[in-house]
Design goal:
alpha+beta; five-stranded antiparallel β-sheet; 2 helices; 5 strands; 25% helix; 39% strand
């Protein structure tokens, strides 16, 4: 196994389609590995996804080119400060991101971002 860090991240996505939610999750897979939960198809208004993987050192350097979003997507990132920062860095390298808020705890952070098409 490649040395690295264990990172857990939970996402809540709203405001776009299931395809938009999956595009965001696939973008984060370059940094976090395969998602445990993937947004499904259907008429949901809120999608969730989770990552809980060992992440190799240097992951998240070159995220894939994501397909354009059909609408603005609000993403809430929840996890350790390191996981949330890595997710923010990865999403910012692919999408136009507006930070809308942050809540910090002792060992966990929650950031809300708006991704623009």
């Amino acid at each position: 196994m490649t040395p690295g860090t264990h990172l857990a991240l939970t996402l809540t996505l709203s405001g776009g389609t299931a395809a938009d939610a999956r595009a965001v999750v696939h973008t984060l897979e370059s940094a976090f590995g395969t998602a445990e939960d993937m947004p499904g198809n259907g008429g949901a208004t809120v999608y969730t996804a989770a990552f809980d993987n060992d992440v190799p050192v240097g992951a998240g350097v070159t995220p894939p080119t994501a397909p354009p979003l059909s609408a603005p997507v609000t993403v809430t990132l929840q996890g350790s400060p390191e996981a949330v920062r890595l997710a923010d860095k990865t999403l910012t390298s692919v999408f136009t991101v507006h930070e809308e808020g942050m809540v910090s705890g002792d060992q966990e952070q929650e950031w809300q971002l708006r991704l623009e098409p």
